[in-house]
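Single-chain item
Fold in token form
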Amino acid sequence: MENLANLVDLISGDSNPVWAILAGAFAGALASGFSGFAFGATSLSIWAHTLSPLILAQLVVLGSLVVQLLTLPGIWRSIDFKAALPFIGFGLVGSPIGASILHILDPWWFRKIAGVMLIGYVASVFIVGRLPRLQRAPRWSMYLVGFGGGVMGGFAGLSGILPTIWCSMMKWSKDRQRATFQIFNISMHVMTLCVYAVQGKMHKGLISPTVLAIPVMLAGSYLGFFLYRRVDEAQFKRGLLILLAVSGAGLLLN
């Protein structure tokens, strides 16, 4: 009943937060529906101006999880669990660490560093003129990327950045790339929310904006996935680069 009352208050109160929640949710869902990541960085560029920092990271994680689950059936057959397990295993170690330091360190600086990293990566690709392409990568790099993604997910809801960059450098099909980092993101988001719950840090106002945003997240995710199914490998890689650049800019500017 309390969550229902909060939702009524949110809708009937100041319209700015409502429109900000809806706009951020749709933009994040559209980006994630197309690419399998980028919900957090995209929605943060809008939500950070109106929502409390205490609820922001948790709303990003929960909203991203909803969108990832909505599009999961469409890429399920492409999931290579053998390839994804090293990321997930070490990510599950990193996620509680990231969630634990959320209330100790300021996520603001963390997001700025992530923004610089994304812009730098995209700039280097354009300077070189092409994406680096690897046939194989050292197994330790998968462990490191998984652990780093887990920490970033638990701390700031940005678990997808490192795995997305790593997968984009492999000579994989777009379906295999997306399936790998999407199942990783889902695992990290579930783990992060469990850690928040166990630590008693779940914000009591989290449910109301999530319920409010579900219709636009449905629309955005399905529109994004519709576009994903209609692009070829080269267009998908260009789309990833654009979203990485936009995500980096959003993190730097919010």
User: Anything to note?
Assistant: Residues 2-253 form one domain. The chain has eleven helices and no strands. Residues 9 and 118 are 38 Å apart (CA to CA). The chain has a mean pLDDT of 81.
